[in-house]
Amino acid sequence: MGKVDLYQTVTDRVIEAMESGAMPWQKGWENCGSAGMIPLRHNGEMYRGINVLLLWIAAESRGFESAYWMTYKQAQSYGANVRKGEKGTPVVYYNVFAKECEKTGKEKKIPFLKNFTVFNADQIDVLPESFTQKPNPVDNGTRSIQAFESFFTATGAKIVTKGNRACYIPSIDEINMPKIEQFVSAESYYGTLAHELIHWTGHGSRLDRALSMEKESYAFEELIAEMGALYISSYIGVTPDFENSAAYLQSWIRALRNDKKFIFKAATAAQKATDLALELGDNVKKEIAA
Question: The whole model's pTM is what?
Answer without folding.
Answer: 0.86
